[in-house]
TrEMBL record:
It comes from Floricoccus penangensis. The keyword Lipoprotein does not apply. Its cofactor is Zn(2+). Keywords: Hydrolase, Metal-binding, Metalloprotease, Protease, Zinc. NCBIfam families: M3_fam_3. The lineage of its organism: Bacteria, Bacillati, Bacillota, Bacilli, Lactobacillales. Residues 112-177 form the Oligopeptidase F N-terminal domain. Residues 200-581 form the Peptidase M3A/M3B catalytic domain. GO terms for molecular function: metal ion binding; metallocarboxypeptidase activity; metalloendopeptidase activity. This is Oligoendopeptidase. It comes from the Bacteria. GO terms for biological process: proteolysis. Belongs to the peptidase M3 family. The keyword Metal-binding applies.
């Protein structure tokens, strides 16, 4: 094998969870936090010179980078070995630093909010601060909502054993999930949640998928009360915190975090909703190809294997070459970057037990590197995931030279570069199809993404709205949560499926993430946003690379609406932009319907 399937973490901090270098950096971080705190306390923004402001920002920069560096490393240890108890302890020590930083940040934001408008305008025009004005103004806005320093300190201290604890409690329960499975040799094995999920959604044999789906549902429903408790308290904690800050609208935080207007999100969903019938028809057609009348939940992502078609697979090395080669056609810089990531072993791809499920990309600002986590087992889908995560890493890489404050892009645009990278690979795979059967198979693989964005993620958005509304009134029982989930799925899929996934809310990590609520609509936003960019790129040809990088570099310096206006000349609050992206998906669906017609007669 040419490229390593395990990531290199030693070059960040040698020694894994026992790393002395990590301990040293964490001690240094404590001192820097203290220094930052003292400087912020002494600061008199109205009378001190701008230099003092800049000094504080410089220190903030060092701390922010240190936090990400250590946090990414510890996170990497935890996800690559869920039984690394030492890493859990280190994570505990690391988390304890948050309150001190948050306290200093609170004081900083409050001081910004106390600066009068005239002085603020003057400050934001100084050469030292001009480029940071968007982000600093956001911090000043948030400062207005803060309670007293003492109160904020109490809340962030309680967060550790509240909000954050519920989220890591979820991980602990998931680690205990075991799905029994009879393997190919007839031996009974137990699969981790991640392994079972991949097999359940990806196996070519419908009976394997159906059998696993039943066991999968059972595994989550066996612990349903623990999951319901966890979800109730996690979101309950969040709602209480919002209420303490005088915020009644649970969508305010996710919208502000994503720098989006509610109007934009509404325009996006309503345009999608109006275009769903062809998607349901597509799902029904796919079910018919499996010999069923209507789509079953677990068959949505199943491969379509017609005739004597062999399903295409890529070894890790082949995937690497394919990605590098196809990125090159859109952006040589992106291609060179991906090559580097493979050469330097930035990717943890091995398929083995004891790993957390899912995939992610994490940044290491002190060394200006990224690391990618996933489980790779040679499918076309996983090539797409690999490209997706490399897209994230590329996005970070074009911003490393900028101030941390301007690198702080939100989740909705964070998915822009990743989805874009994924689209490049999906289309390249499609073009390389040698037979009609293979083309159908690959079109379907490409469609899975769009369908997840329009249907599944819409269901999550509907569900979370319903859950938050109910949770505002009191605790919600496991049964109620489960029926809310089914209702949401039926609404999102226009009631077009033969079966649903009632315990999806327990099985999906995204509902249990502590740092941001509503870990769903930004995905769909990012998907359609990059469809728009992809269409633009195809039109532009060779001039595109620099424009694309310029757009990525602006992702944390303006609102999403401004970003679209500036770089794509479109208005996100109107349906047109969304419809254009959806039309690209509908064109693929049309092609699929035509190609498959003869198989269902
Ligand atoms: Zn992503």
């Amino acid at each position: 094998m040419k490229y390593a399937i395990n990531w290199d973490l030693d070059s960040i901090f040698p020694g894994g969870s026992n790393s002395q270098e990590l301990q040293n950096r964490m001690v240094e971080l404590d001192n820097q936090i203290k220094e930052y705190h003292d400087k912020v306390i002494d600061w008199k923004p109205e009378s001190d010179s701008v230099d003092k402001f800049v000094e504080i920002l410089d220190l903030q920069e060092v701390i922010s980078k240190g936090f990400s560096q250590c946090g990414s490393f510890i996170g990497a240890l935890l996800s690559s070995d869920i039984n690394d108890d030492k890493a859990k302890l280190v994570y505990g020590d690391f988390s304890k630093k948050y309150p001190a930083v948050q306290l200093a940040q609170t004081i900083f934001s409050k001081k910004l909010s106390e600066i009068d408008d005239e002085k603020w305008t003057e400050l934001m025009l100084t050469p030292e601060l001009k480029d940071l004005s968007f982000r600093l103004s956001e911090i000043r806005r948030d400062g207005n909502e803060l309670l007293s320093e003492a109160e904020e300190n109490i809340i962030s201290t309680l967060n550790l054993d509240g909000l954050n604890a519920w989220s890591s409690h979820y991980d602990t329960i998931v680690a205990s999930i075991e799905i029994p499975y009879i393997d190919e040799e007839g031996k009974e094995v137990s699969l981790s949640a991640g392994q079972a999920f991949n097999k359940m959604m990806g196996d070519a044999d419908a009976s394997v998928r159906a059998d696993l789906f039943e066991k999968w549902e059972k595994a989550w429903s066996d612990k349903v009360d623990v999951f319901a408790d966890t979800l109730n308290h996690l979101d309950g904690f969040r709602l209480s915190t919002q209420k303490l800050h005088g915020v009644d609208d649970y969508l305010k935080q996710p919208l502000e975090y994503n720098r989006l207007k509610e109007e934009t999100v509404d325009a996006m969903w309503s345009t999608i909703q109006a275009n769903k019938q062809p998607i349901v028809d597509y799902l029904t057609r796919k079910a018919q190809l499996f010999g069923k009348d209507k789509m079953e939940w677990q068959d949505q992502d199943a491969p379509i294997v017609l005739g004597d078609m062999e399903e295409r697979t890529y070894t890790f090395d082949q995937a690497a070459e394919f990605i590098v080669e196809n990125f090159e056609k859109f952006s040589p810089k992106m291609s060179k970057f991906a090559q580097e990531a493979f050469d330097k072993s930035w990717i943890e791809a091995e398929d083995r037990p004891g790993k957390r499920p899912g995939g992610y990309c994490t940044g290491l600002p002190e060394t200006q590197e990224s690391r990618i986590f996933m489980t790779y087992s040679n499918s076309v889908n996983e090539v797409a995931t690999l490209a997706h995560e490399l897209g994230h890493a590329f996005h970070s890489s074009v911003m490393w030279d900028m101030p941390s404050l301007n690198q702080d892009y939100a989740m909705n645009v964070a998915e822009t570069a990743s989805t874009f990278a994924e689209l490049i690979v999906a289309d390249a795979t499609l073009k390389s199809a040698k037979t009609k059967e293979e083309k159908i198979n690959l079109l379907d693989v490409k469609m899975q993404n769009a369908i997840a964005m329009f249907m599944n993620i819409h269901a999550r958005y509907i569900f979370e709205n319903a859950f938050y509304q109910a949770r505002q009134k009191g605790l919600v029982s496991a049964d109620e949560i489960t029926s809310m989930m089914v209702e949401a799925q039926k609404e999102a899929y226009l009631d077009g499926l033969a079966s649903y996934h009632p315990h999806f809310w327990a099985a999906k990590l995204h509902f249990f993430i502590d740092d941001v609520p509503f870990y769903n609509f930004p995905y769909t936003f990012g998907y359609l946003f990059s469809m728009g960019i992809y269409a633009y790129a195809n039109k532009k040809g060779s001039n595109f690379e620099d424009e694309y990088i310029a757009l990525l570099r602006d992702t944390a310096s303006m609102t999403s609406e401004e970003l679209a206006e500036k770089h794509l000349q479109v208005d996100l609050t109107k349906p047109d932009f969304w419809q254009a992206g959806i039309d690209m998906v509908l064109a693929d669906i049309n092609e699929f319907m035509e190609l498959t017609e003869e198989y269902v007669k």
